[in-house]
Amino acid sequence: MTLLGNHGIPFKLQAFLGLGLFVALLSHDSAAFMGRRTHTRILPTKTNNPVTVNLYYESLCPDCVEFISQKLCPLWEEMSSYLRIDFVPYGNAETIVSNKTGEISFECQHGPQECAANFIHDCALKHLSYKESIKFICCMESRHSAPGTGEVCAEELEVDYAQIKTCSEGPEGIKLHYAYGQRTDKLVPSHEWVPWILFNGQYNKDDMDHAQDDLLGVLCKYIEDPKPTVCNEVY
């Protein structure tokens, strides 16, 4: 896990945001990656309410990359009828607002490259459909989420990157990242590391710890009856 810290290089983005932009919160769907299938697709036995995995993360955190690309996204691909991902890309970043000018800047734990990749994730969540944004973010994370992989993943998934790029490099990206920072800062209890994993918006330390190694087992605990057959083996 990546602990809270202040090890990043300040990432200054010059943009003046008035009060109107501070209160603009994004309505978004969140995120995952279409990797090679290794299991038979699991079909729902009825219309279940999907379990929401709320993932508070940062794009270049090694533990986040591993959890997203190796655990969360492959499971979503197999169980998308039962699992909904709520990506919150901010993690251990810090938002700095100038008292004099209202200018916003960010410091990201893994430096300016992480801030840039976070912005791309923010904008993908805003401008792509739910499924597209899931696949796009997981594609980037499977490539360790360097900013340059955004265009590669967009081409691979046949989605328009122009709007994401414009957003991520301009005031809209700043506004979105500010909103994700506000959401992260309002966590109760406050996050101590990333990835910080909630189920249906609820904090449960045991479930968060177990999800790192056995995400399917924790997910099956939350899936309503009748559960898919695969849960009979783990729950």
From TrEMBL:
Pfam families: GILT. The keyword Signal applies. Residues 1-32 form the signal peptide. It is found in: Secreted. Its main location: secreted. It comes from the Eukaryota. Keywords: Glycoprotein, Secreted, Signal. Belongs to the GILT family. PANTHER family: GAMMA-INTERFERON INDUCIBLE LYSOSOMAL THIOL REDUCTASE GILT, GAMMA-INTERFERON-INDUCIBLE LYSOSOMAL THIOL REDUCTASE. This is Gamma-interferon-inducible lysosomal thiol reductase. It comes from Orchesella dallaii.
